[in-house]
């Protein structure tokens, strides 16, 4: 019997990647990555229009370019016959939202709107809607809205409704012109199939949608702004599709462009972190997966629905069918280290890395690994891009304590790594205190494969063994699994994601185990981290927010 394959496409913050996967065992036959041509637009639009602080936009055509480049590449590199590819699905950062017209064209692609910032696609880390998020939290709390407790008691500026509120307030003409607002993931599926199918995963975690109750009531939206009363019906659409469902079939046009077979099954889109659990073989509850990249998401399932403060949401069937999926996360991990090497490392270190023919990250990691725990005297808060869990506050900013005239770059680099580990321990502790035990800890994503020192620090800080996913492209592999499920067993795929995960998902034999001596020292440092965390993050001193306000005033 000829082998059958599926394609998974993972859209990250800086690039998109495709994998072509053998559905019998999850072996990756070929993979290809395409950086976004326009990157993340945080200061200017392509025409030079200046953006305000905390903005983050992307160009929708970059997403189609990923398909046009990576899919032909994996076909060419693997030599696989397109007739043997049974399905395709994608995953995406979220909430990454765009206004589109009646034909599904993003407004920013129309000449009359290309100079208007709010007509562009807002990336997940667009944090300029924090005021609107605060209003959402306050109004929902005052009204006793039941949905609020499912989202940890606070609304994030990264989500759908605050972003729509920001558009309505600052550019009402864009809000009125938009026929609807769609997740970028759902838009790409629309371009592949000709059918718009809303992802239940994205709607559940980012737009307050619930399997049993749907969206919040019209009265709630009216309380936010009278013009939002019918936002669900008019701008979002009430039809939401579950993970694993078939969104449609590849159109003739898309098939010709990509070199694939017309009529091939295309699965409903997923959120990038959530699709990763089956890729590492997780199908049981109470196993927390850290998806580590630009940011880190912590995803876990449970048989029970618990109200956990400071999480990003608990959604029935949101990750795996029949279970409640919990999301928490940190919005700045890989970005943390990238900021540091771009802005704070002297030229002599780059020259040393060049002489050794290694990357600057490898050089800093090597130097940092030789430091004793606590030797630098540094402690950092990992809030360079705000705090997602457990404080849910994008107005918080980063901090390093203990700098002296003898502080070296590798000491700061290690302190930043340790800060992200403390942030993850905070998330784990928060789950357990709320009655959702974390029985096993897993990791996937580029960082988990490339930086052994960092993973050992995480094991020592959390005092837990860490299992590592085999694939270096876990989200894309997870998407390929859902593509195989969309195709179904009769076409060579699987009828459930549980069957696909059993056959295609796995972890490495190597694990990271905590060192008791290291853990004892990190316990002391973590107590100091918690003191700073609560002082700056829970109202003890709002200096970060005051400074941010002064900064915004100065840039006007």
UniProtKB/TrEMBL annotation:
Keyword ATP-binding applies: yes
Annotated ranges, domain Carbohydrate kinase FGGY N-terminal: 5-275
Family: Belongs to the ribulokinase family.
Classification via PANTHER family: FGGY CARBOHYDRATE KINASE DOMAIN-CONTAINING PROTEIN (PTHR43435:SF4), RIBULOKINASE (PTHR43435)
Metabolic or biological pathway: Carbohydrate degradation; L-arabinose degradation via L-ribulose; D-xylulose 5-phosphate from L-arabinose (bacterial route): step 2/3
Primary gene name: araB
Catalysed reaction, written as an equation: D-ribulose + ATP = D-ribulose 5-phosphate + ADP + H(+); L-ribulose + ATP = L-ribulose 5-phosphate + ADP + H(+)
Name under which the protein is recorded: Ribulokinase
Record keywords, A-Z: Arabinose catabolism, ATP-binding, Carbohydrate metabolism, Kinase, Nucleotide-binding, Transferase
Class of the enzyme per the UniProt entry, highest EC level: transferase
HAMAP family: Ribulokinase
Pfam family, one: FGGY_N
PROSITE patterns: FGGY_KINASES_2
Alphabetical list of InterPro entries matching this protein: ATPase_NBD, Carb_kinase_FGGY, Carb_kinase_FGGY_CS, FGGY_C, FGGY_N, Ribulokinase
EC number annotated for this UniProt entry: 2.7.1.16
Keyword set includes Metal-binding: no
Record Gene3D superfamilies: 3.30.420.40
Domain Carbohydrate kinase FGGY C-terminal: 289-487
Annotated source species: Blautia hominis
């Amino acid at each position: 019997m000829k082998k059958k394959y599926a394609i998974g496409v993972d859209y990250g913050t800086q690039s998109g990647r495709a994998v072509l996967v053998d559905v019998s065992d999850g072996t990756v036959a070929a993979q290809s990555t395409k950086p976004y041509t326009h990157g993340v637009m945080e200061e200017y639009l392509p025409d030079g229009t200046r953006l305000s602080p905390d903005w983050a936009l992307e160009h929708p055509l970059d997403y189609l370019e990923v398909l046009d480049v990576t899919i032909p590449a994996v076909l060419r590199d693997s030599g696989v016959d397109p007739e043997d590819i049974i399905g395709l699905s994608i995953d995406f950062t979220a909430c990454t939202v765009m206004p589109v017209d009646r034909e599904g064209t993003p407004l920013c692609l129309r000449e009359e709107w290309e100079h208007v910032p709010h007509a562009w696609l807002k990336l997940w880390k667009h944090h300029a809607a924090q005021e609107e998020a605060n209003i959402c939290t306050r109004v929902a709390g005052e009204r006793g809205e039941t949905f609020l407790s499912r989202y940890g008691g606070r609304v994030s500026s990264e989500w759908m409704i605050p972003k729509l509120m920001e558009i309505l307030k600052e550019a009402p003409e864009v809000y009125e012109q938009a026929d609807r607002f769609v997740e970028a993931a759902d838009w790409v599926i629309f371009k592949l199939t000709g059918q718009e199918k809303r992802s239940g995963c994205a709607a559940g975690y980012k737009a307050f949608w619930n399997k049993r109750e749907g969206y919040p009531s019209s009265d709630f939206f009216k309380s936010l702004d009278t013009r939002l009363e019918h936002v669900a019906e008019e701008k979002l659409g009430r039809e939401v599709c579950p993970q694993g469902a078939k969104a449609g079939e590849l159109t003739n046009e898309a098939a010709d462009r990509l070199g694939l077979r017309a009529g091939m099954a295309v699965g409903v889109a997923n959120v990038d972190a959530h699709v990763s659990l089956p890729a590492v073989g997780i199908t049981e509850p109470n196993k927390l997966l850290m998806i580590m990249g630009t940011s880190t998401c912590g995803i876990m399932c449970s048989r029970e629905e618990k109200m956990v403060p400071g999480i990003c949401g608990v959604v029935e069937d949101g990750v795996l069918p029949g279970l409640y999926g919990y999301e928490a996360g940190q919005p700045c991990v890989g970005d943390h280290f990238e900021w540091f090497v771009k802005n704070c490392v002297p030229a002599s270190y780059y020259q040393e890395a060049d002489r050794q023919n290694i990357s600057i990250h490898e050089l800093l990691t090597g130097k940092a690994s030789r430091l004793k725990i606590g030797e630098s005297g540094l402690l950092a808060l990992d809030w360079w891009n705000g705090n997602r869990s457990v404080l849910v506050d994008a107005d918080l900013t980063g901090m390093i304590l203990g700098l002296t005239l003898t502080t070296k770059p590798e000491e700061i680099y290690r302190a930043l790594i340790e800060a992200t580990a403390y942030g993850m321990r905070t998330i784990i502790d928060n789950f357990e205190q709320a009655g959702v035990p974390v029985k096993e800890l897993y990791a996937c994503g580029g960082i988990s494969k490339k930086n052994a020192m960092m993973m050992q620090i995480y094991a020592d800080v959390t005092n837990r063994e860490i299992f590592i996913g085999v694939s270096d492209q876990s989200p894309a592999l997870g998407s390929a699994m859902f593509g195989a499920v969309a195709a179904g067993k009769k076409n060579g795929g699987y009828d459930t994601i549980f069957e696909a995960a059993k056959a295609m998902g796995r972890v490495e034999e190597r694990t990271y185990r905590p060192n008791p001596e290291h853990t004892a020292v990190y316990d002391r440092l973590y107590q100091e981290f918690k003191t700073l965390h609560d002082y700056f993050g829970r109202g003890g001193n709002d200096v970060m927010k005051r400074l941010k306000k002064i900064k915004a005033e100065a840039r006007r």
